[in-house]
Amino acid sequence: MPPPARHPAKKYVDAHVHLRDLSGVGCAADAGIAAIRDAGSSASAEQGAPVGSGAHRAVLVVSSGWALYKKGGYGSAFGIPMEGKENFHDEILRLKSAGAGIIKIMASGMVSLRKRDSITPGGFDGDELALLVREARSVGLEVMAHANGEQAIIDCAEAGVRSVEHGFFMTDRALDVMARQNTFWTPTVGALARAADAAEPSNEIKAHVREVIRTHLEMIGKARALGVPLAIGTDCVLPHPRYRAIYDAELAYFAEAGLSLEAVQQLACENGARLLGIKTEGQAASSK
To answer: What is the pLDDT of residues 173-231, one digit of tens each?
Structure first.
């Protein structure tokens, strides 16, 4: 399905990217994106969050700096390991001091391309997630949570995270909790397809990924009907030579999920701005 045509007067948001450096912001500007949410990297942790939150080349950036993940689990490419709840407060303060505009946490592993219908190890438990959210809010920040699988998604929503990222293997039960909690969902549909392509998978894995994406799109349609707030996010590492096409492909996925052109535009612009806590004209605003 071709991507919906962009409205020239609207300001488009990508609610989930990973910035290598400030050149990635220029890449977003060239692709016609007005605001991005940077989900962080381990390089940012090592360098002290080189891309902080704020305006860069007419693009508003809300950056996590780096992610927090549970030691021994998935997340080493995005941040630093956490061992013990006693360290949560200090690390969140360090992120705040480094310019973070949101806290990124890893609440589960990733979708396995090797083992059908499974998620790799990793993630904080429900009590840890609730504490992370409380600690973040104590310094004026919200939490975005990488979460796949029903229990991780439900735990995140009940803990009060601002948004669930990815959300593969979403279920009706998880959507009900997200709707009740008014938790945003950034489905990053194309990320799984790109990961599979990069891995040069077998025909069996390709078929499996297509089925996961099909059910993911079905759940996006259900989320819309239930009133779960949705946002567009590519999970693209910037800069990327094909970024504009990748963003437009993400819009096309939502259209394939059954959303109207008007609805897709609204998610990409107004919902994205609301999730990032900014006004549609691009001025800073509260994310509460």
So the answer is: 999 999 999 999 999 999 998 988 877 778 888 888 999 999 999 999 999 999 999 99
pLDDT at 285: 41
Partner residues linked to 69 by β-bridges: 81
Q: What digits encode the pLDDT tens for the residues 79-114?
A: 999 998 999 999 999 999 999 999 999 999 999 888
Q: Which tens digits make up the pLDDT trace of 228-249? A: 999 999 999 999 999 999 999 9
Handedness of CA 66, 115, 125, 272 (dihedral sign): positive
Q: Which CATH superfamily is domain 12-276 in?
A: Metal-dependent hydrolases (3.20.20.140)
What is the CB neighbour count within 10 angstroms for residue 143?
A: 25
- Residue ranges covered by each domain of the chain: 12-276
The answer to whether residues 185 and 231 touch, using CB atoms and an 8 Å cutoff, is: yes
Buried b (16+ CB within 10 A) or exposed e, 171-188: beebbebbbebebbbbbb
Cα 12 to Cα 1, 26, 28, 141, 152, distances in angstroms: 20, 15, 10, 23, 29
Residues 186/16, Cβ–Cβ less than 8 Å: yes
